[in-house]
Amino acid sequence: MANGDKIKSVFLKNAYFSKSQFFLWILLTIFDMILPGRGLTADEKVAYNAHGHRDPFVPLVTLASKAAAGLAGVESTDDLSIEGVVYDPKRGSVVIVNGSVMKEGEELGTVKVLEIKPNGAWFLVSGTRAFKSIHQNDSQGERTP
User: Is the whole-model pTM more than 0.85?
Assistant: First the structure.
């Protein structure tokens, strides 16, 4: 065998191994995508480090926080504090009372919103119907924001 044939034979063997190695690499990559074996298991959790900021993956308002927002211990309309009113008769008005956003007809605990007006809302608390204004008057008769 001539020296040139020997080099050619070694080159072809190396080329064959690199093609087969490439094929195996592609095959293993595809199987790893289909059957991941090194991913996160159900027991592992990813921890988000907020660095002093709010976690953007945690919702701001949940059903649990809505129910526990401050209407749990309300016994009369004197315990209610209206913080805001969004009056929209076409799409539905909402009132913010004791930190909870409520629509007309919605009931949380002993508090039910009967009707929302631009300047306040009608509530039914423990069987008593009363209007609560957004503007509370202090002892001197001035409007408080």
Answer: no
